Each structure stands twice: as C-alpha cells, then as structure tokens.
C-alpha cells in the first residue's frame, strides 16, 4: 500500500524493507464528561502519555505477529510516524476526514489516537475512498485563532501548537491561554463538532486509570504525561499565564 507521501521524520528509517501493507488501529480516548470537570488540559492530555499506552498495545500485537510470521518484518508507529496517519486511517475505512483535519470515527468521534503496523507481509488491500465530514463549518468558525481553512490546519496559528511552543509566548498567544483556560493542547474544533455528540466512551482501561484532568504544578508533573516530552518549563509557563490558582 504505502502510496501516501511520507512525512519527514527520523522514524522513516524504521519502515521495513519491502514494506507492502499498513494495518491501522484506532485507540478511542473519550472518557465521558465527568472526567473533564474543571480540567485545564485538552482531553488527550488527561490520561498518561498515549504514546506509551497505545505503544504497549501495538508492541504486544507486533510480538504476536512476529511469532506467527517469523519470516516477515513488523514495525509499529503512533504519532511519531512517517505516514500521514489521518489519511491512512481514512484509507483503511476507519472514518472520515473532518474539516478540523482530524479522523472522525462513526462510534468514537474524533477522540481517537491512531497507530499502525507497517509490514512486508502482503495483506489483501482493504483501501476505501476518503470520505469527508458534514462540512457544517462549525470547527472553522469556532477556532480560537482562525487556524482552520478548508480542512487544513495552519500549524503556526493552531492553539494546540502554541501551547507546545518553547520560550516566551507573544502577548496575543498568552491571551489565548487566558481566554480558553486550557494550558495544554486544544479541543475546541472537536468539542464543537456535531459528529462528536453522543459518542461512545473508550473501552481502554489504561486511559481511565491514569486520568488526571487538572495540572496544578510540579506535583502533577511526571515523565509519563502527554506534555512531558516538552519538559516542565513549557507547561509551567502556561499554568502561570493562565493565572489559575489551585
Ligand atoms: C504535526 C502534527 C500536529 C501539529 C500540526 C497539525 C497538522 N495537521 O499539520 C499540531 C501541533 C498543530 C497538531 C495538533 C493536534 N494534533 Co496532531 N499530529 C501531527 C502529526 C505528528 C503529523 C501531521 C501532519 O504533519 N500531517 C501532514 C499534513 C500535511 O496533513 P494534513 O494536515 O492532513 O494536510 C493535508 C490534507 O489536509 C490535504 N487536504 C487538503 N484539503 C483536503 C481535503 C480533503 C477532502 C482531503 C481528503 C485532504 C485534503 O492536503 C494537506 C496537505 O497535504 C500527526 C501524526 C501523523 N504522523 O500523522 C498527529 C495527529 C494528526 N495529531 C493528533 C491529535 C490528537 C492532535 C490534536 C487533537 C491534539 C490536541 N487536542 O491538541 C491537535 C488537533 C489540531 C487540529 N485541528 O489538527 C492525532 C489525530 C487523531 C485523529 N482522530 O485524527 C494524530 C494522528 C496523532 C495520533 N497518532 O493520534 N498535530
């Protein structure tokens, strides 16, 4: 399959030689509104780091496949992937591409992480047409920093990216944190999406077990959180800007 243009990233070197197929997985992470009460984090950052949680599932699957097909290669990816994962999930028939640029699954909405296993095993192709969302325009209209246009997100304007920036933020960027009350990531284009109404909660128990919706400072910091790859300074800067006192 591997027809899609590859994204520039170090993980490119891990693609098995002679790769033929991609098995795409969705990891739904919506926990139900009660879990997000008074949260100052976007939903994806409430549980422990998804790279770790999804990675463990993918690793187990890869071990199983390697045992079953010892002559083949299998490599898993999740986020740090050379594939455009939204496109891969659409082609695998797991959902439609939203105007918010995200994959929307019929049952779990867009609150799903995407992971995949790339292999040189020749699996019969299950490629689907890329369908799109309702195109109601609500995500584009409600984006806090006008970052969305025709299904493409402007990385320089996306508030999620701004919360992850190192160094000092511009006053206009800091104001977005105060205005939204969110100090990591952003869910506005997902929360407003009609296709995210009445979605199922995730069956993945690790997301519930590690849920911690409020970041109060150093005592809530550990190396397993979704924001830890940026180190403490960035999230603590955002907390200070937000002016929240706990
Ligand atoms: C870099 C990145 C970001 C950057 C930039 C996003 C971007 N799209 O450029 C930032 C930091 C902003 C970001 C934010 C978020 N991200 Co992000 N991100 C990625 C990452 C690592 C690469 C994305 C990328 O560069 N794609 C390439 C660009 C060029 O693709 P594109 O945006 O789709 O643009 C093309 C298409 O839109 C196409 N196109 C244009 N018009 C049309 C129309 C149609 C109909 C079609 C079919 C195509 C099309 O042309 C464009 C150019 O080629 C992926 C993981 C991965 N490897 O894919 C995760 C990923 C997309 N992110 C994810 C998540 C969860 C988020 C956040 C929701 C986190 C949060 N809560 O804050 C936000 C959402 C922001 C948003 N609305 O997109 C998930 C999305 C899961 C899902 N359900 O879709 C992914 C897949 C990670 C994962 N493994 O789960 N992200």
How would you characterize this protein structure?
- By secondary structure, this protein is an alpha+beta fold.
- The protein has a domain at 10-119.
- Helix content is 27%, strand content 11%.
- It contains eight helices and seven strands; from the N terminus they run E-H-E-H-E-E-E-H-E-E-H-H-H-H-H.
- The protein has helices spanning 50-68, 85-91, 138-142, 159-163, 171-180, 188-191, 205-209, 231-242, and strands at 21-28, 74-77, 96-97, 103-104, 112-119, 148-149, 152-153.
- The strands form three sheets. Strands 1-5-2 form a three-stranded antiparallel beta sheet, with helices on both faces. Strands 3-4 form a two-stranded antiparallel ribbon.
- The chain is globular and about 55 Å long.
- Cobalamin binds next to helix 2, strand 5, strand 7 and helix 4.
- The site of cobalamin (B12) has 33 residues, from helix 2, strand 5, strand 7 and helix 4.
